[in-house]
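Subject: NADH dehydrogenase subunit M structure
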Amino acid sequence: MLFGFPLLSLVIWLPILAGVGVLATGGDRNAQTARWIALAGAVAGFLVAIPLYTRFDPLTNAMQFVEYSPWIEHFNIHYHLGIDGIAMPLILLNCFTTPLVVIAGWQVISKRVSQYMGAFLIMSGIVNGVFSSLDAILFYIFWEASLIPMFLIVGVWGGPNRVYAAIKFFLYTLLGSLLMLVAFIYLYQVSGGSFSILDYHRLPLPLAPQILIFIAFLLAFAVKVPMWPVHTWLPDAHVEAPTGGSVVLAAILLKLGGYGFLRFSLPIVPDASHYLSDIMIALSLVAVVYIGFIALVQADMKKLIAYSSVSHMGFVTLGFFLFNAYGVEGAMVQMISHGFISGAMFLCVGVMYDRLHSRQIADYGGVANKMPVFAAFFMLFAMANSGLPGTSGFVGEFIVIMAAIKVNFWYGFFAGITLITGAAYTLWMYKRVVFGAVAHPSVEEMNDINGREILVLAILALAVLWMGLYPLPLMEVMHTTVDDLLAHVARSKL
């Protein structure tokens, strides 16, 4: 309890109510009021999430901060919330990112300000609902509801092809989720009328239905991650989305897919997860290697970073299906790290786009001559994206590569290629954009970052360095949960 309220409900509904309050400010004549209410709501959302970490018991594998109330009793649907060592870090990442997005869009967004800020706050609460739901129908409602704010953010504030990108994003993710609902209905029937996710973890299902359920979950989660070959919606969505939309899409929404594998696929259908693990590993390695080479040839900075996200998220699914503690914990660290780094990279591109209104690498050159402070921040994040030791980008990838080598040397070998390709496409982009003489007259007129932009980038820089140098506080909260999950999967191994 916090302030007399159940903590998880507060984490979910406070941002949503703040978002509604922002919408209530009306049109752009009250834009500044909307900005301040949004910032207050986002910061409050982060502050109320902090006790989830400080009061979390890392020694138990039971769900914590549990809330349970009847909802639709005729179908045995309940308002059932709870978190473990997997969900809690992702909620903190979400609540940490939202204030940064609000600050980043403070001056950039000048039209429909209240709707823009309100959409991010509402989405923040909905995503917290996804990470904390322990009832399948409640989870599904939050899961699908998360599409709506992002659909509007891309479709209203995006680029010239925003409508195409928004519809493609919506259709891919919606259609991928429909079979997940079918799987929930089947599990409801075989469990004797329960929508409790924890009850599904104990179902003794034969292999054939497990495989079908796994495929149903895979279509939902693979699109969200996104895995190759269902990744094509992501570059379009990133290119057209406003900067804040790209940040949240990369830092938060992609993690819903990774979370789904750990909450549903592995514990509910463990035999199918083992049976199909070679396919999952192969798809993950294709994403890591092949998509990394695709990123090398991109001329648009946002599209390059989007493909980089697909490649780095391949480490996440690879780690999950190695079935050892290094793999799962490394994948979790990679998810959190990717949230920091990809968000920072998109913000850096947004800083330049706000000044030059171009994302094309060829339109830049010599930016360091005019924006030295920005160039220093951008270099740190580019190095982190390349996997430089001492940054968060190194930790997760290194642990997953170690886990892969323990299973099969060639898994680790191909996964390690990303340390080469990642450095190649990131640093080559950085060199062409930042170094050298000023290549275009428009670059000559660019001004260095202001205090608001320094604040956002400095916070992310501290997060990247802190996690790169001292990841223990993050990893220790997930040990027990991961060990319990792997023990459960091992007991069911064919």
